[in-house]
């Protein structure tokens, strides 16, 4: 019965090709590559080099920047493929780039959630925050990498069968290996609950709790200012999450239903596949939006960047003054030499 329904569905939907995806993917990756590379490289350099006080979610920000940078560095290969429609490289490299995309997505979700939760906890429980050790953040980050890295492994494995027959295809042209309905439901449940529902609940709760504390607690102006900064930071995490990851996870269950041939309506199938492409492009924007979280909303980042930037500027000014001073001295020496020659000729 299922094979007959599958055949009839495919017969109705004779054209499920999405030719616009090549142009859209290439344009998206070209647009975000340079800003994402520069923003995350500078952010990682400043966070690692100039911020010695590793509190206020700094460790999570560093890991978030590493996750974004790993995906950004794979974008030139994606750009090449979507422009040329040909993969001349080795098969493992294709699977690695495919893996990094989803690793970046779910690692970013976890670290954004940790940033929101820690800023909220430190602000509402300042005395307990004093006892918090930096190694706790390192341990949490390591656990996130292991968990997310393991959970994302099935994604490239399910696509690897498409490379066995033709090594010229990669990324969007790889077919999804047929899986059982039970496996599909388990995959959707884990991705939706762990990668979407739980982070949404945590970030929403942190935003509500911090906003409520600003309205109820009468604190000194300096503490109020710090609370507002933390609130804005959590709000930025929420904005990045909503813009980049919500569309994908709203569409993901429908996408898996399409792959399991649950739907028979051709327009619904085409709409789901089309929105899947758009949602993946939106998910890639997090590489450019994540630096906003710690660049514009973290006072330590701005202060240290301005501090060391001013030192460099002052050094340049001193170098310029030294060059000008040497130039003036050379002019004085030349003038003295000319006067000495004139005097010798006169005598």
Please tell me about this protein's structure.
- This protein has two domains: 17-297, Rhopdopsin 7-helix transmembrane proteins, CATH 1.20.1070.10; 309-347.
- It has 15 helices and no strands.
- The protein has helices spanning 2-12, 20-50, 58-72, 75-84, 91-124, 126-129, 134-151, 154-159, 161-165, 181-216, 221-244, 246-259, 266-284, 286-295, 299-346.
- The radius of gyration is 28 Å and the shape is globular.
CATH homologous superfamily of the largest domain? Rhodopsin 7-helix transmembrane proteins
| Count of helix runs | 15
Q: Give me the count of strands.
A: 0
Structural class: mainly alpha
SSE string, helices as H and strands as E = HHHHHHHHHHHHHHH
CATH class of the largest domain: Mainly Alpha
CATH architecture of the largest domain: Up-down Bundle
The name CATH uses for the topology of the largest domain is: Rhopdopsin 7-helix transmembrane proteins
